[in-house]
Model the fold of this input.
Amino acid sequence: MKLDLDGRTALVTGSTQGIGAAIAAGLAKAGARVVVNGRGEAGVAKAIEELESQVPGGEFVAGAGDVTTDEGARQVLDRAGRVDVLVNNLGIFGAQEPLEITDDEWRRYFEVNVLAAVRLTRLTLPAMTEQGWGRVLNIASDSAVVIPAEMIHYGMSKTALLGVSRGFAKAAAGTGVTVNSVIAGPTHTGGVEDFVYQLVDQDLPWEQAQREFMKNHRPQSLLQRLIEPEEIANLVVYLSSPLASATTGGAIRVDGGYVDSILP
Done:
């Protein structure tokens, strides 16, 4: 099975590290020209250097800009040129007592995790439908379905992203463009390491801290370990490829069996 994205341009938001960087590498390995996005020029340049070492011969384009603003989103798209594959990966998360979340924090989570994806989809979908091919993928989370008590503002934003994905899939019906969300489970990234240590003893070695976190805070996981970013990327690359042409409007899970459901 060949996942061939030769001649396609993919924009991955928030792709200087973690899941986003793994997705960028995976898409480049499949032949795509990949636009690497982060807010700062220096961070994007460093990420591209690292990606080029991982994917020799891969084509990476610097797409620095703050996609949480209209001006920043348009700046990134100008640098990208045509976008055939849009991966809305950018997101923020953090633990906070539910009754202590302020109105400003609710708004910030919605604007970063939902509205940025809506904005970029609105700006790229018309060209995709006109050419009769395109992929939009929104990176959601198991928290969209199993709302975590320690970060319900994050869970709310990811639930909204599932609805956004289904709605835009309907807007693109019959055009050859697919829109899906990817429900990622608890994943091993630097940011998640910080989050884990908010919830377990900070003096524990990482392997022990991870086990404590999964046992006490994510006991539903059938995988019983954190997912590696490359495992998320594998599904995203498939859904971005021509082989996934009949998959649209879906919320596809790569969650380690965390969501207790027989439906995908």
Remarks:
- The mean pLDDT is 96.
- The two ends are 22 Å apart (CA to CA).
